[in-house]
Design brief:
Elements: H1 2-32, H2 47-62, H3 72-89, E1 95-105, E2 125-132, E3 136-146
Antiparallel strand pairs: 1-3, 2-3
């Protein structure tokens, strides 16, 4: 009789774990097929938060660097990948990210940068940050586009 009780408990545990798996599948399916045209307010791309994130990455990566034309390409790629990974960790559901980073030599000349996008101003947004030291400048921008 003890064995029957343990078998019933084991069967109940299987049912509970199967129900949890089914619930997770339902939640994942709802995310895929929700047809939501607008993100929830708590899930919107927040420029101020993303700007702080970008600035902290730029400070960490460029604080002790001097401009080197041979390594600046790889450094800008590394910064872009790090920004994109941190953005993904913020859990902005259904957002696609575009990250751009430009590193140049600081010689006192001016630079003008421009970007144009066709997007929904209610859901899509961007954030940018600039870092400068005696040797180099860096402009990094992240665009969050809501995927309908």
């Amino acid at each position: 009789m003890v064995e029957n009780g343990s078998e019933e408990t084991h069967t109940e545990n299987k049912n509970i774990s199967n129900n949890k798996g089914k619930q997770q599948d339902i939640v994942e399916q709802e995310k895929l097929h929700s047809y939501s045209l607008r993100p929830k307010i708590s899930q919107r791309f927040r420029s101020a938060e993303v700007k702080e994130l970008i600035h902290s990455i730029l400070l960490a990566r460029l604080a002790d660097k001097e401009y080197n034309s041979e390594t600046s390409n790889e450094l800008s790629k590394l910064i872009c990948f790090e920004i994109k990974d941190k953005l993904k960790s913020l859990n902005y559901d259904r957002y696609k990210f575009v990250v751009q980073c430009v590193i140049g030599e600081q010689k006192g000349a001016g630079i003008n940068m421009c970007g144009r996008c066709f997007w929904d101003s209610d859901t899509d947004n961007y954030a940018e940050s600039i870092y400068m030291n005696e040797s180099l400048f860096c402009v990094a921008a992240a665009y969050g586009i809501y995927y309908y």
